[in-house]
Amino acid sequence: MDLYQYEFMVRALVGALIIGLVAPALGIYLVQRRLSLIGDGIGHVALTGVGVGLLLQQSPVLTAVIVSVVGAIGVELVRERGRTSGDLALALLFYGGIAGGVVLVGLSDNSSNANLMQFLFGSLTTTSQEDLTVIAVLGVAVLIAMLGLRQALFAVCNDEEYARVSGLPVRTLNLLMAVTTAVTVTIAMRTVGLLLVSALMVIPVAAAQQVTRGFRSTMAAAMLIGVGAAAAGITLAGEVNTAPGATIVILAIAVFVALTVGSATWRVLRRRSGPARAGADAEPPDVVLQAGSR
Q1: CA 119 to CA 191: how far, in whole Å?
Q2: Which of helix, strand or coil describes residue 1?
Q3: How many Å apart are CA 291 and CA 273, to the nearest integer?
Q4: Which helix (H) or strand (E) covers residue 95, if one does?
Q5: CA 154, CA 108: separation in Å to the nearest integer?
Q6: Of 81, 162, 172, 189, which is most buried with the most CB atoms under 10 A?
Q7: pLDDT digit string (tens) for 12-31?
Q8: CA 283, CA 63: separation in Å to the nearest integer?
Q9: Which residues contact 42 (CB under 8 A, 6 or more apart)?
Q10: pLDDT: is 79 or 156 the higher one?
């Protein structure tokens, strides 16, 4: 039976492919900044937004976007001012977000476990055409920002002080990162759920790092792995009747394990065959900034 003869499966596949492409493109910057878990924190805040939407009988996706963006900006401002450490700010985000979400969902008229579970763990096969349109528009916007500002974002993530001395608008770029992370988490909650969204941002990047050396090649490989895991995950989930989001994440982890083992084996074989030339496989610098340039 052809799974994609059904319209809901086609929508599920398209939505998964968009998230599989966008999440690693953003995730590589979060990994570079050692903020791999921020997606989880914002996911918890997005749950509060879902609760607000259900309570006010508005679109949960729209309210989740608004609340998660506000939360992400707040955490970034706290981190920038240095009054609260990054891990403590994330902890506040985790606990406050999940507590607020559970309370608000419980107070709403639609407080069934099914409504809560579809946001926590994803419900891609119930994605409507309107949901898909929102995912596509916001996903394309995030992707354009991540690719178009690649050099500036890389500079900020790699050395924030040097980027500031070089004349880059560091605060604006940091806030952009926070907003795009919030948007990506929110649109991905239909694909893998709020509790698993961070995995799709981080795991493809971690897998790509096993076989690449430079930033550009890692980004390209991570996006390819994300798209491949999304497509294979949706197909496999339809065949064996498993949760699409969890299946996508498991396949991404399988790719990471395979590349890690393969890369380690290749390095052992190369060492046995003879010394490698220093810098032979190095990728040229992704960006070179001049102090004081604007």
Answers
A1: 9
A2: coil
A3: 43
A4: helix 86-107
A5: 42
A6: 189
A7: 888 889 989 999 999 999 88
A8: 42
A9: 68, 71, 72, 93, 97, 181, 182, 185
A10: 156
